[in-house]
Input
Amino acid sequence: MESGFVTFIGKQERPTRSINNIRKVGDILGIDDDIVNTIIYPQDVHVFRLHINLVGHPINVWGCTSFHNRARGIYKGGIRISSDVDIWNTIELSRLMTLKTSLVDLELGGAKTGIRFDISEAYKLLGKKQYDIKIESYVKKEIIREFAHHYREILLKKHYVPAPDINTGPAEMALIYDETHEPSSVTGKPEGVPGWLPGRKEATGYGVFIVVKNLIAKTKQKPEETTVAIQGFGNVGSNVAFFLDKLGVKIVAVEDKDGSVYKEEGIDVASLSKYVTSNGTVKGFCDPAADFFGVEVDIMIPAAINDAIDVKAAKKIKAKYIVEGANSPTTPEAMDILEKKGVIIIPDILSNAGGVIASSVEYANPISTQKMDNEEVFGMIKRKIGKSMDLASDIAKERSISLDLACTFLSAERLIKTMKNRGWT
Ligand code: NAD
Output
């Protein structure tokens, strides 16, 4: 049966991986289409326009928030600034948040904000060519300050509690706090801002690291013999690189928006990080990878953008495992190819859940004067991701389904139960 959302909006969303998976779970459990649709479609979507003034240049910036599902708790989800934002990919990302929070059993719902802006446009407007960290942070701050002002009431009511995502980080979250002065109105705040949480900045990367560490333990391979390629060297990519490097794993290739680097004997992560701080990219640190997705590695970690692994990339991939640090980095068509090749995919809703697990602690302890330390936060991430991975692996084995589908199974089953208990279905 067609959903009310589709009739209302008049346009059908492309069948994303999460939609396909939710429908498959519905079939397995014999659930009505009406109930399946209540998990697929968002409860509320806001489109907004922000008026920004960049050193005398007034510009309109469009964005939207998809408030996907709050059956299990407040709407929670990051804010991204990117040129490829649209309503449909924002809805998909918000749906992944709902599935993720349910999978790792947090009392939170799912949401996402996408703000469409190409930061390179700001360079043109301001007549600059060279990478300049001050320009990047100035532009992001202007956008987020205006966003926080526009969303003041929603944020103050804690109807929606945002966090960092692509092109936003602790500095931008501090601006949201500046608008609300309410510690639990935003998570991912920097050190010293009331309600901040040690370990939150590294949390997503740490969760991805835990998944990789568990895989290495299962294969009985030594960390020093394990090779990894990482796409993205932002918050998630750089932190997972640091943790893996510390364990002795060899990171042989890294790619970002401008180019890639490759070193067979392993890249020095600390030096790469210093290089990126000054140059804004990994490009030029050492030789590039001839073909990033075709590199010979045990584990590929996409930790940058949506749809990075398409059919073309999937055909080249030689890795045995893909650990999804990014949200929705593998297209459904690529997924089919990879599954046929026997590549095991650890899905985004499990691998990158570390960030929202830490955020749940930050949200729940806003006025704590006695902070948890990094180790306690990391311990919680390790336990929650480890437990969900074990439960999903058991479901995958029992039902002979992929781990990807098993994660959606576990999550959707929990969500349906809650919605039933609330009388929503
Ligand atoms: P970020 O802005 O800190 O970093 C993004 C990285 O991706 C940069 O290194 C950038 O150069 C690279 N990149 C951009 N376009 C690219 C392209 N076309 N090809 C290759 N690399 C490209 O963002 P982040 O916070 O690290 O987020 C990365 C991914 O992880 C996103 O999918 C995000 O939704 C997901 N995620 C982030 C968090 C978090 O806590 N920050 C939590 C869960 C999931």
Remarks:
- DSSP finds 17 helices and eleven strands in the chain.
- The radius of gyration is 21 Å.
- Residues 104 and 388 are 6 Å apart (CA to CA).
